[in-house]
Structures are given as C-alpha cells and as structure tokens.
Amino acid sequence: MQFNLDHLDVLVVSCLGIALRGIVSLSSYSGLSTPPMFGDYEAQRHWQEITYNLPTKEWYTNTTSNDLMYWGLDYPPLTAYHSYLLGRIAYSINSSYVELHKSRGYESEEHKSFMRLSVLVADLLVYIPACIMLAKNLPNKKLFLAVLTLLICYPGLILIDNGHFQYNNISLGFMMMAIAAILQDSYVWSALLFSLALNYKQMELYHALPFFVILLRVSLSERNYVRKVTKLLQIGLVTIATFGILWLPWIFSKQSFMATLNRLFPFNRGVFEDKVANVWCSLNVVYKFKENFTNSQMALLCLSATLCVVLPLNIHAFLKGQKKTFMLALFNTALAFFLFSFQVHEKSILLAAIPAINLFQYMPFNTVAFLKISFLSMLPLFMKDCLCVPYFCLMFGFSCSLRYFIQVVYSENLKIQKLLRLLMLGMDATIFLISLVSIFVPSPARFPHLWPLFISVFCCGCFLILLFISIAHQLNIEKYLYRIFYKFVPDVIMK
User: Fold this and answer.
1) Contact of 28 with 387, CB cutoff 8 Å
2) pLDDT of residue 139
3) How far apart are CA 115 and CA 162, in angstroms?
4) How far is CA 450 from CA 282, 379, 386, 441, in A?
5) Helix axis angle, 478-487 to 450-474, nearest 10°
C-alpha cells in the first residue's frame, strides 16, 4: 500500500501514540492489590461482571446480586452496554473474569492484558480516528501535525486511561467527532455524535451548552422558514431518538428511571472528595464549606457560580455564531465547570484539556501552558497509583515537543520566540521542582496532605489566569491584555 507524505505523517504520529500507550500499560493501575475496594480498574471489571450476569433493569438498582456500595454502575447506558460487550468477550476468554460475586478483586497477568488491550482497542477505533478527523480541519500542514500530535500524545489522557485505567477515550472521541462535524457543517451528525458522548459519560455536560448554542444558532440562521423548522426538527429528532434508544430498558419504569438518574448524579458525595484543583477545594483552606453548608446548599452555590460564568459566554457565542467563538466557548465553559461546579474529580480536567488543544492555532502559548499545568494537577492521583516514572518520562518528552511546536508557530518572529522560550523554561523548571518535592519530600506530620493541597491551589490559580485570558480571546479583547504584558517585559529580554 502506497502512502503519500500526509498519510505517512498520520501513521507515524498514530504509531507513536499507540507505542506510548502500550508502554504505560505495563505500569501499575488504580487499586492494584489494595482490598477491599481496590480501584477504578476493579470498578470497570465489576461493571462487566454485573452487566453480563444481570438483566438490564437491575444494572443501576441495589439488589442482593448488585451491591451498589461496591462500585455500583454510575455512568450512563452507553458505558453499560460497552461493559456488557466486554463482559461477553471476557467470559469467552475465561469465565472467572466475570463470575458473579466470586470474581471481586480478580487480578492476573492475563486479565490485565485483556483489560489493557480493551483500552487500546478503544483508542484505535474511536479516539485516534476522532483526532485525525478534527485535525484535518486545520488550515495548514504545520498546524495539522502539531494539533494531531498534541491530541494523540497528550500525556494526561494516556496516564489516566492506559495507566490509572478508564475509558475517557470513548466519550472524548465522540465529542471530538461532534466538533469535527460542526466544522464541516454536518450539524445533524454532530447532534448524534455528541448525544453518544453524553450517554457514555455524564461529565460531557461540561460541553453541552456550547453544542446546544451552536446547533440552535445554525438552525435559526436559516432564512427560509421551512428550512429553519426542518433543521430544528432533524437535530431534535436525532437527539431524542438517540437518547430514547439507549435508555429504552429504563424509560418505561419510573422507579428504574429514577434509580438510574440517582446513580448518575450522586449529590450525597459532597462538593469534592480528594484534593482537586478547583475553586472550592482551594477556598476550603481558609473556609470549611463542608462544615458550614449542607450538600443541597453547596450544590446550589456551585450551580449559581458556574452559571454566572458560563451563561454570558454562551450567550456571546450564540450572538456571534462563529465557529472560532464556539471553540473558545467550549474550552471556557468546560474549564469554568471544572473550577466552579459540584462534585469535581481530578480526572475531569481532561474535559478542558482536549478542547484546549483545539485552540492551539488561536493562542499557542496559552494552550501549551494549560496542558502543562493540567498534567501537573493530576500528579497526586498518579502518585497514588505508583505512576511517577511514566509521569516524569512523559512530562519530559511532551515538554520538548511543545517547545518545538511553539518555535514552528512563531518561526518568523524571533523576539516573541525568545520570550516564549524563556517563559516555557521557567514553567518547566517550576513544574519539575514541584513534582520532585511532592514525590520525594515527606509532608510534615501536622499537615499530611500539604503537597497535594499545594498542587491543587497552585494549579487552580493558574487555571483562573488562563481562563481569564481565554475569555479575553473569546471577547476579542486579548490584544489589550498583551499590550499591558509587553509594556512590563524588560527590553533586554526582547532584544
């Protein structure tokens, strides 16, 4: 088979991404040999056990055969169907992988290979094709290769899915396909693909408002009334039909439907669990929210704060109706949800990281800075899973590639290139120092969570600054910020 240069580039980058994933797959994973609950690896295996052995109406319901206190299924139906498919395959390989009750905490090298391979297959079938589809919309080959490499080789996603162990690649893959469909004016396909993403992981609600806004805008922008109504009906019917088909086993029973919803939105867990780089965890250092607010009050506070940030941004995106504005609103909305919403996990930063990569053509340095900080923000989770060695290896390789891509983008402006090179060097040194101290310097006995908390607060501050800059880009006022910045940059640096 003959490949032209573009096909060869895609093949090389894809193979590099698969190789990195394969190497990380040899490492530890969440909950390895840590009974009684183990970790996310066991959660995914247990869902295969439940969905394979029990009827659909019991998948989200507490029964004698399905103890919801032991990794009860808490993702939407498409995740459940995926678990069922993997459960059938697992049973055909070795029935003990999914034997009801008896397989809890099952660990073996053969089973680890099966589970790791299932993530790689999802990467090959969904995530990497989605990266290629999205990158193809970029205006030139340099940007295409840069964004494709960043999407496929972003170390945060690799360490979470192929290290820690999850299937974020599927929901993020469908979301990226939905973005690509919008960029190609295929709005009905976009509605279908985003519905699949939302039905795989409910955290895709982080992206729902911008998609709703752009799909509504393009429908209402039709001058012909018949075409306007037709497009609205097409998008609405595709969305409703997708949800209806996927939720079919539960929608005819109010009890089953409500039980499923309660599993998807567990407000009883509180505003946050582990140390996470969002506003509430950072402010909790000086004001204990969990001690002064009930869960309901805290949920209302989080909702109000989040809406105060995201609604103006999405109204602006609706009024502008531009694809660039949609891309910026997608990132800004996702990051605002991460910073201000209720029940946020460290891994949720991935929902902002992937849209951030798509902004590389508009704000390269801000994108690079966000990717570096987002990777650092997940370090406490990687430490817990004994993934420090792959963390440092991927951090080093990714930093080198980012530095190269920045030089390519600013190849004609040596002054800006020099300034950004210095800024990136300072950022890399800071991240490397924080990482080393967190891993090798024990926390004081009086403050056992000092380093994870420091990382959370530091990263939260950086996220807020980057969100502010990105909002300025969306409102098209970033040039005023940069004028102020350059005014205070010493002339010796710019020479």
Assistant:
1) yes
2) 83
3) 10
4) 12, 13, 19, 11
5) 120
Residues 266 and 71 sit within 8 Å (Cβ to Cβ)? no
Question: In terms of C-beta density within 10 A (0-12 exposed, 13-18 middle, 19 or more buried), how is residue 91 classed?
Answer: middle
Question: Would you state the torsion angle of the CA atoms of residues 323, 325, 326, 327, taken in this order, to the nearest 10 degrees?
Answer: 90
55 SS3 class: coil
pLDDT grade for 492, boundaries at 50, 70 and 90: very low
Residue written as token pair 């009684």 = 36
Instruction: Write the pLDDT tens digit of every residue in 260-279.
Output: 998 998 777 777 777 899 99
How big is the chain, counted in residues?
Answer: 495
**Cα distances (Å, whole numbers) of residue 429 to 40, 296, 423:** 32, 42, 10
| Residue from 69, 40, 24, 114 nearest 347 by CA | 40
Percentage, residues of the chain above pLDDT 70: 95
How many C-beta atoms surround the C-beta of residue 388 within 10 A?
A: 17
- Which tens digit of pLDDT belongs to each residue from 405-433? 887 777 666 777 778 888 889 999 999 99
| pLDDT number for residue 489 | 56
Q: What per-residue confidence (pLDDT) applies to 202? A: 95
Conformation bin of residue 101: beta by default, left when phi > 0, alpha when psi is -120 to 50: left
* List of residues 6+ apart from 138 with CB closer than 8 A: 144, 147, 361
For residue 144, the surrounding DSSP H or E stretch is helix 141-153
